[in-house]
Amino acid sequence: MIVVTAPMGNIGSQVLVNILDSGERIRVIARDPSKLPARVLGRVEVIEGSHSEAAVVAKAFEGADRVFWLVPGDPRAPSAEAAYVDFARPACEAFKILGVKQVVGISALGRGWPEDAGHVTGTLKMDDLIASTGVSYRALACASLMENVLRQAALIRDHGAFYWPTPGNLKEPACATRDVAAVAVRLLLDPSWTGVDIVPMLGPEDISFDEMMTIISDVIGKPVQYHLMSMDDLKAMMIQRGASEGMAQAMVNMMTAKNEGMDHLVERTASSSSDTPTSFRQWCEDVLKPAMSA
Ligand SMILES: NC(=O)c1ccc[n+]([C@@H]2O[C@H](COP(=O)([O-])OP(=O)(O)OC[C@H]3O[C@@H](n4cnc5c(N)ncnc54)[C@H](OP(=O)(O)O)[C@@H]3O)[C@@H](O)[C@H]2O)c1
Question: 287, 220 in Cβ contact below 8 A?
């Protein structure tokens, strides 16, 4: 049996849809099962609650041998350590007690970065905790997700503007959630792998925000201007939207580390390129453009 956490999120929903016809027994953990899509209902077992709760994961992992693990990174948590490591503690206990064999988790690039990198540091400590339970683990180490752009879809549409605290000409890896979900599905349906490893999700090429804006402008047929915002403004914006001081600072620390080269610690290989083939242009055509006209 495969358990899917965060089944209504960007990545989790695509994982779920892509394993529905696999013939495997599937169980999902959902805080509000009424939000599950109709095509899923009746085809999966549903455990109601959060995968941060001991009683919920104890029920969900009973009889399960594989788990898709994704931590939402609650912006109201006091710190990145609380948001990722503490969130995962009950599940890690349950992995041990209930004999879960394989876990495929959503992680981040940045292993080896010497400074605190906020969300990334929390995520990598979570990976270590999961690995320490003795399960076989694959950490899908994601570059920045192309879907982050969707958060500014209204600004792009209404004002032709996009704001972020990264120099516009800095080329960084970026990957699409569809590719991350596809690799997760491949691993979840393969009982043969063992041990602990990292799978880098780098996208097909490094790309700057200036290049992204050119592509977006081309695809939506309207000029979009990139605006560099300060880290102070990013932090203030997060706090104004309800984030804790600790999580707002964690975001600043992560973005600072990315600007200083954290996402370039891993080289792109033939295997990482074929795992994450979706180009930013393709993603704009398939995801951003329809989202903007919806
Ligand atoms: N964005 C990036 O560039 C990037 C890069 C590297 C790694 N990552 C990692 O990717 C993950 C985010 O993936 P995603 O974009 O697919 O997530 P997402 O779309 O934000 O989905 C997260 C889901 O978690 C559920 N959720 C929220 N709070 C919860 C709680 N307290 N307990 C249980 N469920 C909760 C929400 O569903 P309900 O509200 O319906 O419960 C939501 O659908 C994070 O771990 C992040 O660190 C992101």
Answer: no
Confirm or reject: Cβ of 148 under 6 Å from ligand 1.
yes
Rounded to 10 deg, the angle between the 245-259 and 119-132 helix axes is 100
Domain ranges, residue 80: 2-146+175-203+260-277
* Residue 73 CB less than 6 A away from ligand 1: yes
Q: How far is CA 226 from the centre of its chain?
A: 24
- Tokens, residue 237: 């914006």
Counting the structural domains of the chain, the total is: 1
What CATH number is associated with residue 76? 3.40.50.720
Whether 220 is in a domain gets the answer no
Nearest residue by C-alpha to atom 28 in ligand 1: 72
Query: Which tokens is 72 given?
Result: 């939402």
Q: For residues 213 and 229, is the Cβ–Cβ distance under 8 A?
A: no
Within-domain flag for 236: no
Question: CA–CA separation, 68 vs 84, rounded Å?
Answer: 15
Query: Is 294 a residue whose pLDDT tops 80?
Result: no
The answer to whether position 181 is within a domain reads yes
In the reported structure, the alpha carbon of residue 5 is separated from the centroid of ligand 1 by a whole-number distance in angstroms of 10
Q: Give the pair of three-digit tokens for residue 155.
A: 């600004």
* pLDDT, tens only, 155-200: 999 999 999 999 999 999 999 999 999 999 999 999 999 999 999 9
Local structure of 5: helix, strand or coil: coil
26/15 Cα distance (integer angstroms): 11
Instruction: With CA atoms as reference, report the closest residue to 36 among 26, 46, 51.
Output: 46
> pLDDT, tens digit, for every residue of 248-289?
999 999 999 999 999 999 999 988 889 999 999 999 999 999
Listed in sequence order, the DSSP H helices in 150-287 are 153-159, 177-188, 209-220, 231-240, 245-259, 270-275, 280-283
β-sheet bridge partners, residue 279: none
Task: Give, for ligand 1, the residue of 3, 4, 10 to mutate: max count of ligand atoms closer than 8 Å to Cβ.
Answer: 10
In a domain, residue 70? The reply is yes
